[in-house]
Amino acid sequence: MIIACLVLSSCKQNEKTLQHKNASKVKKIDFVALLEAPPDAKSASESAISEYEWHFKDKTTTKPLKSSIVNDVSIGNRSIVILNTQKIDNRFVVMNYKYTNMYNLLSFMDLNVKDGQYFTDKGGIKLPLNQFVVAKSTEPDDDPVILAFANKKKIAVIARYKRFSFKLNSNENKNISIVDSSGHKLFIVTNGQRRFLYFFDNDYIFVVTGNLNKNELINISDSLPSATSDIFPSSKNKN
């Protein structure tokens, strides 16, 4: 059952096309739908690629492949999934989940890295991108605040949650390293080519992720202001 339909604004302004893998003609996107979350999904990323669906002008549909998953970050019952859907609609997609017996999608952001507005002012954050499109998602009571920065090659996601208790699963605990940096203990979790970093700041938890290497994660974390800063997420005062 479709519970939400999202018409891509760029489709109206400049209709996107794609060469579908199993079709000989160019297919045009009509809209994107968010379907009802599968109750038996074993991970947030499994839920994400089941929920996200393109509808084309020729009445056919398709969903993201597993290969489009850039990262699947879970801390306790909170998860962030990043998809690279550029082969179809020139976007990165960031999906914010909370698990309560199933993975519930709270919000999502799509970043159009082809036709979106690009910025160069990093606000003092040491992003590994010189030019980028940006998106922000804020839940009630600012829990969490999620920011995403992307170009065609890289995406960086920063999330700030109100502090809560959690345990990492056994596999994540085996692949965790701890770095002391800028007054914080940075916990870096690696799973193959995917990694994320988290640290505690007063009554908050920060998560930094994307398709980034260890040093890029640390540089971003070191450049962030205090969680309670009036200028968050800008950290101009650190430049």
Write the layout of secondary structure elements.
Elements: E1 2-6, H1 9-13, E2 17-19, E3 26-35, H2 44-51, E4 52-56, E5 61-62, E6 69-75, E7 78-84, H3 86-89, E8 91-99, E9 103-112, E10 133-138, E11 145-150, E12 155-162, H4 170-174, E13 176-181, E14 184-191, E15 194-201, E16 204-210, H5 214-223
Antiparallel strand pairs: 1-3, 2-3, 3-4, 4-5, 6-7, 7-8, 8-9, 10-11, 11-12, 12-16, 13-14, 14-15, 15-16
InterPro entries: DUF4367
Domain DUF4367: 142-224
Pfam families: DUF4367
Largest sheet: 7 strands, antiparallel
Number of helices: 5
Distance between the termini: 50 Å
Q: Estimate the strand proportion.
A: 35-45%
| Total number of domains | 1
What does the average pLDDT come to?
86
Give the structural class.
Answer: mainly beta
> H/E series, N to C?
EHEEHEEEEHEEEEEHEEEEH
Radius of gyration, CA atoms, in whole angstroms: 18 Å
Main features:
DUF4367, 45% strand, 239 residues, 5-stranded antiparallel sheet, 5 helices
